[in-house]
Amino acid sequence: MRWQRPGRLGTAARGRRGPTEEVVPTPEHFDVVIIGGGPAGYGAALYGASAGLSIAMVEKQKVGGTCLHVGCIPAKELLETAAVHRHVQGAGAFGIGVAGPVTVDFSVTQARKQQVIDQLHKGLTSLLKGRKVTVYDGVGRLGPDRTVSVAGGASGEVTVTGDAVILATGSVPRTIPGFEVDGSVVLTSDEVLALTELPRSAVVIGGGAIGCEFASMMSDLGTEVTILEALPKILPGCDDDATALVLRSFKKRKIDVRTGVAVTGHAPRADGSGTVVHFGDGESVDVDKVVVSVGRRPLTEGLGLEGTAVRVSERGFIEVDAACLTGEPGVYAIGDVIATPALAHVGFAEGIFAIRHLLGEDPVPVDYGKVPWCIYCHPEVAFAGHSEQSAKEAGLDIVVSKHRFMGNGRALIVGESDGMVKVIAEQGADGTAGRILGVHMVGPWVTEQLGQAYLAVNWEATVDEVSQFIQPHPTLSELFGESVLALTGRSLHG
Ligand code: FAD
Ligand code: NAI
Q1: CA separation (Å) from 348 to 46, 64, 342, 371?
Q2: CATH number at residue 284
């Protein structure tokens, strides 16, 4: 069956909007059927419904996916607890007295985290209901001709079809041989987020996004942390200067960071209270918990796909073209299950893209090299676009401007002056700075400051253009303004 994009007035319009239209969807037929209710899936559902499409979404656990239940939201909530702890500990510098030692009741922390999740889950559920998205509870399997069967959940056995199907089944933690997850000593992020108390000591295997966020959080709340990273540096995707600043802060806080080391196994203590982790050249460390954060793998188990032309790569990702279309006509795949940056907001963007594409619009594909990245460890890291290293590797002529938060009034006021803003711009033949290629930030609330840098990079704005805009004073964001202004060859404070 040859599939054609329905065009601007899609089947929703044909089925629902006009008495003259020929196709009336039966209850089992939808304009779009989505498998997976994480950010990618529910993003596509909400956006598609707002465009007038009839949508079914199949979710085997809870709508919200990894991000809401065991990812972004709980992890950031625990990091915020760590921030509060740091602030209270540092309150003396502001003349604020705290009677007695600063304590942590992790059960209260966990209850607050759950409250945030529950509130967002409730909000999302009513949003979906309000937009008339039909949510099926069960495992969705894709068969030929865009037929999706649902089974194993509260919705019972149901079969639905769609003019289009979107696969958004996400990802699960990757594990490594020799470190089988037992939920008590060897944990992944899923189990760390459910701990009822924090361990006295922990090894974090993998110094990527999860590893650094968890190491930072646990260390701030009193755990002795060792990070074991196989590559020569932690946060391998970040600009070298950004990584160096995070490393310096981690070391100051006594997080033991070991890079370029391989873990070779572990020997549990006889009483099951911890384990000795072996790594590198005969080294070992005795800890209460091991956190395995070596990446995530796409989830396609149980998804069916037999009799379809959907292909799964050797690494487990669903293969798609630039339009997120699989080999099966009318079947898209988005989010962590495809080999694009595994980020909630990339999932949202791909969901919007897929809906616009199936509506016959002409959306611009996501520019994956320029998506925003925010890592919420302390100090925070945020960036978009080229790092200095990747720009050089790409053979680009560049100029770089770096400014420290040490010279920023607001940073001194809030008492967090560790960090920098680094702007990488194209260098013209006359030596002047042109297009902004990348912006990398480390420091206080940089995850909230990245917005304008992201726009500059993605709008392909030049240094001259951006330097004309005003930054409010006194703000942390002035440092971005200063860093861009300095690239004009003149400056204020920088
Ligand atoms: P998921 O969120 O994994 O959702 C997939 C959904 O599909 C799940 O609900 C699953 O139950 C369901 N499903 C799977 N198979 C089937 C099936 N056959 N039938 C029915 N349902 C099915 N990203 C950020 O952008 N910012 C962050 O700060 C951030 N922090 C993170 C912290 C941690 C600890 C972790 C683990 C991840 C974090 N991420 C963060 C990554 C982010 O969570 C993911 O990129 C995002 O959740 C991916 O969305 P998704 O919809 O593709 O997949
Ligand atoms: P990751 O890919 O970010 O980092 C994994 C790290 O583990 C890498 O540095 C890798 O070199 C290292 N590693 C791999 N095998 C190893 C081994 N055997 N021994 C030691 N080190 C090893 O993966 P992570 O941290 O698990 O996160 C998964 C994804 O979730 C991220 O890539 C990101 O897309 C998303 N995420 C995003 C966050 C954010 O945006 N703030 C926060 C957390 C996760």
Answers
A1: 10, 12, 11, 12
A2: 3.50.50.60
Residue bearing the CA closest to ligand 1, atom 34: 71
Cβ–Cβ < 8 Å for 139, 151: yes
15 located within any domain: yes
Q: Whose alpha carbon is nearest atom 7 of ligand 1? A: 36
Tokens standing for 169?
């089944």
Q: Is 473 a catalytic residue?
A: yes
For residue 105, being part of any structural domain is answered with: no
- How many domains is the chain partitioned into structurally? 3
Peptide bond into 39 cis (omega under 30): no
Q: Domain for residue 43, yes or no?
A: yes
For residues 21 and 156, state if they share a domain: yes
- The domain containing residue 417 runs over which residues? 379-486
Cα–Cα distances in Å, from 367 out to 51, 363, 438, 439, 466?
A: 23, 12, 13, 16, 21
Phi then psi for residue 315, to 5 deg, are: -85, 0
Q: Which of 85, 87, 345, 473 is catalytic?
A: 473
pLDDT tens per residue, range 198-247:
999 999 999 999 999 999 999 999 999 999 999 999 999 999 999 999 99
User: Residues 270, 334: one domain?
Assistant: no
Q: Which ligand lies nearest the alpha carbon of 368? A: 2
- For residue 16, pLDDT beyond 90: no
User: What burial letters (b/e) apply to 94-115, b meaning 16+ CB within 10 Å?
Assistant: eeeeeeeeeebeeeebbeebee
SS3 464: helix
Cα(39) to centroid of ligand 1, in Å? 7
Nearest CA to 400 out of 412, 392, 410, 411 is that of: 392
